[in-house]
Specification:
Helix content: under 10%
Distance between the termini: 21 Å
Number of strands: 4
Number of helices: 0
Order of helices and strands: EEEE
Strand order of the largest sheet: 1-2
Largest sheet: 2 strands, antiparallel
Length: 87
């Protein structure tokens, strides 16, 4: 099942200084097996960087996932999403 944008409508608009980390716990919750798409817009122009993950885990034994956005270069709008095993 893929989650619709209407079902999980959340946004975060923030500025984080160089070398700082911002953690937002339980920003998006979902039922087990739901795929959630996150999008990061680093500048006003350009396409958002999208990422899909399973916050509650997949069907069966798949564990919950935690998404992490790492901004490599804000000026060039370079960033990557990763998912790690959560609790």
């Amino acid at each position: 099942m893929t989650a619709s944008p209407e079902e999980y409508d959340a946004s975060l608009d923030t500025t984080v200084g160089d070398g700082e980390t911002l953690v937002r716990r339980e920003f998006v919750t979902a039922e087990r097996g739901d795929v959630v798409t996150l999008a990061a817009q680093l500048r006003e122009e350009g396409a958002p960087i999208e990422f899909q993950f399973l916050p509650a885990g997949g069907d069966g034994d798949s564990p919950p996932e935690v998404a992490r956005l790492t901004v490599k270069n804000a000026v060039e709008a370079s960033a990557t999403w990763t998912a790690t095993k959560g609790n």
